[in-house]
């Protein structure tokens, strides 16, 4: 390796200011381990100086993502002024589609007017003569800013070679972009942990490139060459620990560190074990393959220790698609033993147990994204989510009780939805106002690599075409555009006409605005269970359950059928008899008072416990006590039959009080 061969990796707007870029931080460390000099430049810093932090964050997080306003801002330095096209973008996309205020539109245009000067500043901020290769990471709305600077670098520093990578350049998208933008010399596709260092070695030594997997390049005739696909990393423990030093150096400029509370990024796995067996119909992630691989618990613990000791940051977002379920046995108990102040974020499956949610909390995982995209079992089946509405609510309930924050959304517009699906969701909303509301809502998007995109006719999807906004970002012919972009518009066939979701969306917005969060609180003294309900009224309603009625409510803490309740009761009290009819009678009363949620033959108690019994043995501990009567409304629990509890149901109106 020639000692003067140096590499620059660049993160352009509109990458996050609140966390480092993981991919290029991994690549930098990989090159450093091979003795290759590499710098990461967070050139979003220069735009922050022009726009201010609040405006930058607003454009990144406050403007609808698929308006691609951040990308549109950089059409000016990339293509020059296109008055008719630019005016049409403002009218059609910003004003008509997304209904932004004219004040917000003016704010976006003001940012756009600064982008040519920003690109010029980027040319002088860095000494580009030091480098031989410049790499751009491109995800989300970074593509046009990256292309604009790449073109300027190629024009002003002809010795530089330019390489692109990232989600925007995967598969056909990368090939189409590479064909159109001739100033890009190479594209790395797939996992580049091994292929990128191989590219750097070959360029430094002047050797051939055809042996490098996952590479696009041009031969001596300018023809595009595509090598064999890059192989996924098999042993995740061999992946480098990312070097975030350049990110923190960027934050240390001026007063920025005081304005930003950074989070670290951690990768514990790649792929999706659920998607490998049942690909969610709308999901376009993992375009290069679903195969799931994870790091060992030892490696995750050592990486966490290294990152936290180096950067003194304890807010950590795990970037995995899904939590490895083996971690409940191998990793999370060890994290819980550390009693660290760290706060971890993970994406998880929704069908977790109470004990698993408790372990998440104890291990420092206080924020989760469980893929709750609907509260309709039918719609969830259309998604192939592998869960149902009751289990989604069950997770929301346990997370509220155990102080785990849930990031979830309601998606709508799935082919095959029915009016009754929306009605059932609205009815569920009315009963769970005491739980954490959705973070937001959105109509489904047709993503490249999703089953909806690969087999649209199977789902009643017609006329798949590039999302309209892309015509303003990439002013090329339709055939090229269709290969170049990742999101698509479509039509429904006659059998799958979408349902009007306006009432559903209004209910979500109202729920989110309800700052006076109601309660459905459960206090259990192991003798009498008292439920306080403020969901539908400022005046609380109180209910008391005792004896086997109390125990049945405890058993319904998890989704249960009448027969499963009967079986569990019989196991706890083998000398007693429990009839399905008597259990059903109580459950009907509980459902009438909206203390349980029912779907089909299954029930879920909705109350939030202040102190949930840590085992069924504790919940039924009265069976070891002498036969006695306790406070009003309770009955003996030793050697009882369900007939003895009928008086409780008959006296329900007496037990219900208002204050």
Automatic annotation (TrEMBL):
Pfam family, one: Radical_SAM
Cross-referenced InterPro entries: BchE-like (IPR051198), Elp3/MiaA/NifB-like_rSAM (IPR006638), rSAM (IPR007197), rSAM_horseshoe (IPR023404), rSAM_ocin_1 (IPR023984), rSAM_sf (IPR058240)
One cellular-component annotation, GO: cytosol
Record flagged with keyword Oxidoreductase: no
Entry's EC annotation: 2.1.1.-
GO molecular function list: iron-sulfur cluster binding; metal ion binding; methyltransferase activity
Enzyme class, spelled out: transferase
Cofactor: [4Fe-4S] cluster
Sorted UniProt keywords: Iron, Iron-sulfur, Metal-binding, Methyltransferase, S-adenosyl-L-methionine, Transferase
Gene Ontology terms describing biological process: methylation
Matching Gene3D superfamilies: Cobalamin-binding domain, tm_1862 like domain
Residue ranges that the Swiss-Prot or TrEMBL entry lists as coiled coil: none
Protein's UniProt keywords contain S-adenosyl-L-methionine: yes
Radical SAM core domain mapped to chain residues: 258-491
Name used for this protein in its record: Hopanoid C-3 methylase
Organism: Granulosicoccus antarcticus IMCC3135
Gene: hpnR
């Amino acid at each position: 390796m020639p000692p003067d061969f140096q590499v620059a990796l660049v993160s352009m707007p509109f990458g996050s200011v609140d966390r480092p870029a993981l991919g290029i931080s991994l690549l930098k460390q990989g090159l450093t381990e091979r003795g290759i000099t590499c710098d990461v430049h967070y050139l979003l810093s220069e735009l922050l100086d022009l726009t201010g932090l609040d405006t930058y964050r607003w454009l990144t997080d406050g403007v609808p993502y698929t308006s691609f306003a951040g990308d549109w801002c950089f059409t000016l330095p990339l293509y020059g002024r296109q008055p008719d096209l630019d005016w049409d973008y403002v009218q059609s996309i910003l004003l008509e589609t997304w209904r932004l205020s004219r004040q917000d539109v003016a704010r976006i245009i003001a940012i756009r007017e600064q982008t040519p000067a920003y690109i010029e500043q980027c040319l002088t901020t860095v000494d580009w003569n030091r480098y031989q290769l410049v790499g751009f990471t491109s995800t989300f709305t970074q593509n046009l800013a990256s292309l604009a600077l790449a073109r300027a670098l190629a024009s002003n520093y002809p010795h530089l070679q330019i390489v692109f990578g990232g989600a925007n350049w995967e598969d056909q998208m990368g090939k189409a972009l590479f064909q159109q933008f001739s100033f890009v010399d190479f594209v790395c596709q797939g996992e580049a942990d091994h292929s990128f260092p191989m590219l750097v070695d070959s360029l430094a030594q002047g050797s051939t490139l055809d042996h490098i997997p996952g590479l696009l390049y041009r031969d001596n005739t300018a023809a595009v060459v595509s090598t064999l696909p890059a192989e996924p990393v098999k042993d995740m423990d061999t992946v480098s620990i990312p070097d975030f030093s350049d990110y923190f150096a960027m934050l240390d400029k001026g007063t920025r560190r005081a304005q930003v509370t950074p989070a670290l990024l951690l990768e514990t796995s790649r792929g999706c074990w659920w998607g490998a067996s049942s690909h969610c119909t709308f999901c376009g992630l993992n375009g290069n393959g679903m195969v799931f691989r994870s790091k060992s618990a030892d490696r995750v613990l050592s990486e966490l220790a290294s990152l936290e000791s180096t950067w003194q940051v304890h807010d950590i977002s795990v970037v995995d698609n899904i939590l490895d379920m083996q971690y409940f046995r191998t990793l999370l108990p060890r994290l819980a033993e550390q009693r660290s102040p760290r706060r971890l974020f993970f994406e998880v499956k929704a069908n977790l147990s109470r004990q698993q949610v408790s372990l998440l909390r104890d291990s420092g995982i206080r924020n989760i994204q469980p893929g709750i995209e609907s509260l309709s079992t039918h719609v969830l089946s259309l998604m192939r989510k592998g869960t149902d509405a009751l289990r989604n609510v069950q997770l929301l309930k346990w997370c509220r009780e155990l102080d785990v924050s849930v990031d979830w959304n309601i998606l709508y517009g799935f082919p095959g939805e029915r009016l009754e699906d929306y009605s059932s969701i609205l009815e569920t909303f009315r009963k769970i106002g005491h739980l954490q509301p959705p973070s937001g809502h959105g109509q489904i998007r047709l993503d490249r690599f999703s089953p909806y995109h690969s087999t649209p006719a199977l789902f009643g999807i017609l006329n798949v075409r590039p999302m309209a906004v892309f015509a303003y970002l990439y002013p090329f012919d339709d055939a090229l555009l269709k290969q170049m972009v990742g999101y698509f518009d479509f039509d429904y066939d006659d059998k799958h006409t979408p349902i009007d979701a306006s009432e559903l969306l209004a209910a979500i917005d109202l729920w989110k605005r309800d700052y006076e969060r109601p309660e459905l609180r459960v206090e259990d003294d192991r003798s009498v269970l008292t439920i306080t309900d403020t969901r539908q009224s400022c005046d609380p309603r109180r209910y008391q359950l005792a004896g086997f009625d109390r125990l049945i409510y405890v058993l319904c803490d998890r989704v249960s059928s009448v027969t499963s309740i009967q079986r569990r009761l019989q196991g706890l009290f083998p000398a007693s008899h429990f009839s399905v009819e008597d259990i059903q009678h109580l459950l009907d009363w509980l459902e009438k008072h909206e203390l349980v949620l029912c779907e089909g033959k299954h029930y879920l108690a909705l109350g939030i416990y202040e102190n949930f019994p840590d085992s069924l043995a504790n919940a039924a501990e009265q069976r070891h006590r002498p036969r006695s009567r306790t406070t009003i409304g309770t009955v003996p629990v030793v050697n009882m039959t369900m007939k003895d509890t009928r008086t409780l149901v008959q006296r329900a109106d007496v037990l219900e009080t208002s204050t």
